[in-house]
Amino acid sequence: MKKEEWIRHIQGRVPDAALDYCFSLWEEKPFHFVISRSRSSKLGDFRYRRDHPVQKITINHDLNPYQFLITYIHEVAHHRVYAGHSIRCMPHGIEWKRAFQELMYPMISEKGVFPIDILIPLRRHMQHPKASAGADLFLMKELRKYDTQDPDRLKVLLSDVKLGEKFELKNRVFQKLESRRTRVLCLEVATGKKYLISGHAAVTDK
Question: pTM higher than 0.85, yes or no?
Fold first, then answer.
């Protein structure tokens, strides 16, 4: 595939300043690149198939440009690791962390790729990258500001609701009881049952 054709495929989905870099990552070690439907369980995906000479990376179509770029590099890092080590490595082990850091470094060093409000938590995140950017509350909050097509972006995050206050999630009313590392213990008002809910959940104040 020619560079111009490949870039047209991704143009508008990542910051313009990252287009050439994204192409260079694909050109160095090509893969099938699919922009997929939205999936609530994941933003992108790479699965190694031993019987496939060319592997596949998929990225959700509805991500904002900064989230799309981070996800793209995240999955390319998987591709690089599996190309060199096959299935002997843990999916988000030290080999992946190093590959992700190395591939992301040019983008967090280059001016004009990420706005400063994302760049600050992103640089911190990359010191010890997690399996998902969504697991990093500070980074996720900044990325969420740019989700202009997401109807939930104007809602509050459960992590920002005060203890004891009530909130609505999926047409059910809860009370926030206790914050834990990444989840929050909540009481469903109607049933009296307790649930652990992600602190990243977008909720409506009651």
Answer: no
